[in-house]
Amino acid sequence: MNILLLLTSSFLFPINIQYNIPSDSLFVGSIVSFEVHLENLNDDEFPTFNTFANDSSYSLQEYKHYKNHADFKIQFWEKGLVTIPPIAIDIINSKKVQYSVHTKPIDFFIFSHLNDSNLTLKKNKGMLFINLINKNKLVLILIIIIALLFLSAYFYKKINRNKEEQKVIEKNDINIYSSIVDKINNLKLPINGNANEVQEFYAKLSYILRDFMKKKFYIRSTEMTTHEIFQYLRNKGFKSEIYNMWNRINEKSDMAKYALSNFKANDFNDDKEAFILFIEKLNKL
Fold first, then answer.
1. Please, are residues 23 and 121 in contact by the beta-carbon 8 Å criterion?
2. What is the CB neighbour count within 10 angstroms for residue 152?
3. Using an 8 Å Cβ cutoff, are 111 and 25 in contact?
4. Which of left, alpha, beta for 193 (phi over 0: left; psi -120 to 50: alpha)?
5. Which one of 41, 71, 97, 168 is CB 3.0 to 4.6 Å from 64, fit for a cystine?
């Protein structure tokens, strides 16, 4: 009987194997001949077949190699399921191995004598052809895999770049905060306590604070009115503590601007600390 099976290969070329055996029932000592054929090879390609090692359950009796196929003849020595391992085939081009393919394992069930309960004479089977994936589909799969690898690399670099940019922003925030606090600490207190000195002191405090808000939130705070900044803080959804502190520290500036109160020496230091505390809370937002 003849059985033709299509087997796998690394490049997915059709490989078929043809068995020449008297029936589906094989016994210990039976000899089976089968052929392995390769199809769709290029004119400048030819195969070399690697024979398999003998086993206690079978032995290779004969091997013949032709242009695009090989003949194998094996004899079985043990009953039960016997598996012939995959046969490796190298495809040669320009005296070099271009790629390799291999057959699937081949299974045979061997009987010991005619009284085996599983012994039945089965009908001959016709040839079975199975078409594997063609070259165009393989190329498409490879393109998709390469595209996925490029996308993965792109998103990986983008995530790392965003992390680096965030580190730079955080570093700039620290530098801005430290610079602003130093300016407030270095601001000279009014000596005589007259109205002009007090107005100048609070005007500088207010400008330093507005300059910080401009650099922190990217708004035109040095050009905005006190009420506009209050509306910005409230509309941005900040806690009421923030815009209430803004109102309190600006009350002192307005009082100094219009000379509505008498200031003591302790007031200036306290107000510097209040401005620094407010800037610290803004910097954490």
1. yes
2. 10
3. yes
4. left
5. 71
> Amino acid letter at 283?
N
Taking the alpha carbons at both ends of the chain, their separation in whole angstroms is 84
Question: What long-range pairs does 16-25 form, CB within 8 A, spacing at least 24?
Answer: 16/129, 17/103, 17/106, 23/121, 23/122, 24/121, 24/122, 24/125, 25/111, 25/119, 25/120, 25/121, 25/122
pLDDT tens figures, 210-259: 999 999 888 999 899 988 988 888 888 888 888 788 888 888 777 777 76
pTM: 0.40
- pLDDT band at 145; cut points 50, 70, 90: very high
Beta-sheet strand order (sheet of 80-84):
26-27, 106-111, 80-84
Tokens of residue 156, six digits: 């990986």
Tokens of 260: 């509505």
User: In sequence order, what are the beta bridge partners of 15?
Assistant: 7, 38
**Single-letter amino acid code for the residue at 67:** K
Say which residues have a Cβ less than 8 Å from residue 88's Cβ, sequence separation at least 6.
49, 50, 100, 101, 102
User: pLDDT band at 146, cuts 50/70/90?
Assistant: very high
Helices (H), the chain: 135-185, 195-217, 226-235, 240-257, 265-283
Q: Please, what is the Cα angle at 261 between 258 and 266, to 5 degrees?
A: 120
